[in-house]
Amino acid sequence: NHLLRRPLEEIYYLWQLTGGDIEAELRRQGLIKVKPAICTQPKVVIEEGEQFGQKKDSAFFLNDTVIILPLDQLKQRLKDIDPVIYYPLIENGSTSLPSNVSSIDLQETASLPLLIKEKDIEYQLHRVILFERLLNAYPYKRPQIVREARADIPPLYRGHVWAALLEIEGDIHSQYDQIDKETPTLTDRQIEVDIPRCHQYDELLSSPTGHNKFKRILKAWVVTHPQYVYWQGLDSLCAPFLRLNFSNEALAYACLSAFIPKYLNMFFLKDNSPVIQGTYFFIL
What we know:
Elements: H1 8-17, H2 22-28, E1 44-45, E2 51-52, H3 72-77, H4 101-110, H5 114-117, H6 121-136, H7 142-149, H8 158-165, H9 172-177, H10 188-198, H11 208-224, H12 234-244, H13 249-263, H14 273-283
Helix pairs in contact: 10-11, 11-12, 11-13, 12-13
Keywords: GTPase activation
Pfam families: RabGAP-TBC (PF00566)
Domain Rab-GAP TBC: 152-284
């Protein structure tokens, strides 16, 4: 079975494209139960804000129940896929497919709008397998990653592809761990004000965990770039990198650190008015 040899995150990504809904599966198993809003309110709230008379919802407790997700629909959708798609050749620099019906359909899909391509399971299967192999060969295959990224990037590997485009290399986790992200700095107050105010549009970024990750990454950048200062808007610049690498702070920090000197060089100086004027006229 070629599909089951793929990484688990790829299978889950493709499963969602075929209509898989993890919350629906959990509700079907009785692990998610709808509770009337009135039943979630405390019975007593004192002036200091302390609440009484409400038990903690069991949804916040650890539940080690294992749920087997059905793959029948996914297997049915991919049963006629040519097995050669699972093993693309990248050594000769070509990612062209053999001339059969499947490859012709994929080539037609490649010319469609991005929104349609990201919903097409056969096309996404081809792209995630191709990019996974190219990323495993990074940095040797960086030119080919750049070439393929001009067409489109599968959402599953977008964070890693952006890192490759920004030429992120080395032991980024050790470098990030060595940065002091706890000692108070002069910019802490401004960071704590900007983060909750600017990123309520996304559930992950607006969560308490997202706020803590934001603060650590921004503090790490301020500490490691003493020649620069924190300007309002740096958190918004960090947002896409954190969103794409939410479980990998080190990679999000590395991408932010590589992006700024490449595209916003000298922008975060204490007096950046000459840079802003130059950027303004360049954009016009």
